[in-house]
Amino acid sequence: MAWVHPTWRDLVIERLGADPARRRRFLTHCGVHGIVLALSVAGGAGGGRQLPLLVSDADWDAVGDRLHALTPELETRELLELLETLTAMLDELDPATGAGEPPALAGLVLTRTAARWDAAGEPIPLPVLDAWLRLAGRLESPPAPPSLGTTWAELLPARTPDPEDTAEVQRFTDWLILCGLLAPPQLAALGWGPGQMASIADFVDRVGGDPPRFATDAVIQALEATARLHPELGGRARRLITMVLAPEMSETHAGEAQRFDEPAPAEAFDIDRVLADL
Q1: What are the pLDDT digits (tens) for 207-231?
Q2: I need a surface site. Which of 104, 147, 168, 264 has the fewest CB within 10 A?
Q3: What is the pLDDT of residues 98-142, one digit of tens each?
């Protein structure tokens, strides 16, 4: 069963909310989907229900212990969902709710995730890195960010990409996106300097030499990323976008600056996945 009426979600929450022992057992053994349910905000018929399964201090302790064990095992998509849920929780939650527990929980997940990435020593997928950085930005005392040397080295262009080489341009775009996620001190520590600025300007010049020739989605995405990252080149990059696009699409896309990780529509509530944790 992939979807049920939202009333079933309310029944699950009511059943667990009224039974401390069952609620504790659920929080101690649930998977990421159960955790996301417990951390949900703006729920219920009127949208005012917050943290429906975190009623007592013992509940917070249970979900913290579960996240400590669960976070290093999550797949990228599951980790992304968890980080976004925690961000929404901090954004929407009444500051009086749970006292210091919500930021402490977010800090736990951020710390465990960064340690996992550092131990793996592999490039970090950009959408989940973006989610990590956005959540960290909600905390007064965020944990140290993960090491980004491997991710930077994986994406850093050795030369200005050929606008006709789709793979090179896509990698270049990912590198531009990574640059846009980082604060100036982080960029400086990774070696950002005049050479990288010159490479970006050179790419824009190459596309500007014959815009219709480079009318590809990859080039458009690179120009959009350039416009977001580099204000001095932003105006020219946006003008080139209108020149490489088909005329009928120019008005739609000119000046667009969509997030590379715009969330997909929310998945329907899967009652089986949650009930399995009971």
Answers
A1: 999 988 888 999 999 999 999 998 8
A2: 264
A3: 568 999 999 999 999 999 999 999 999 999 999 999 999 999 999
Find the helix packing angle between 126-136 and 166-181, rounded to 10°: 10
Token code pair at residue 126: 């950009």
| DSSP codes of every residue in 125-186 | PHHHHHHHHHHHTTSSSPPPPPP-HHHHHHH--SSPPPTT-HHHHHHHHHHHHHHHHS-HHH
pTM over 0.90: no
Nearest to 44 by CA among 26, 17, 21, 62: 17
The residue ranges of every structural domain in the chain are: 6-144, 151-245
Classified as helix, coil or strand, 1 is coil
